[in-house]
Amino acid sequence: MLYQFTASCGPTVTYTGEVGEAILRHAGRAPGERGVIVWADIPTLLTRLRAAVATEAEQAPVAVGEADDQEADDRQADDRAPPPSVPLATRLNPFMDLLERAFNAQKDVTWGI
């Protein structure tokens, strides 16, 4: 399952179902097959998403060198260990860009599965 977010003023942003649902929850929206984000609501959503990114950053402050060392240790301990997770900020970047474009153009953002 894929979530596709679209607006007439920007590119389509696609996420897997699990990631798309998490992003919608962070934005204060209920995940569903279809939905609309009205352009006037976008500043509130951006505030919520930025707060979620800040919260994640506060909970996992790891220096880059320390993370690399830890990953190397983890790989030595178990070659089958899952890859490190992608930070929320990285996942949200395309979606937040689409929201900003839509707000500036006064366009709604829709999503569908």
Summary keywords:
113 residues, alpha+beta, 4-stranded antiparallel β-sheet
Structural description of this entry:
- The chain has 113 residues and is an alpha+beta fold.
- The protein has one domain (2-112).
- It has four helices and four strands.
- Strands 2-1-4-3 form a four-stranded antiparallel beta sheet.
- Strand 1 and strand 2 (13-16) form a beta hairpin.
- Helix 2 (42-59) packs antiparallel against helix 4 (88-105).
- The model has no long low-confidence stretch (mean pLDDT 86).
Which structural class do the helices and strands define? alpha+beta
Number of helical regions: 4
Strand order of the largest sheet: 2-1-4-3
Helix content: 40-55%
Tell me the Rg in angstroms. 16 Å
Count of folded domains = 1
State the total count of DSSP E strands.
Answer: 4
Q: Let me know the average pLDDT.
A: 86
Q: Point out poorly predicted stretches.
A: none
Cα distance, first to last residue? 7 Å
Strand content: 15-25%
Main sheet: strands, sense, barrel: 4 strands, antiparallel
Shape: globular
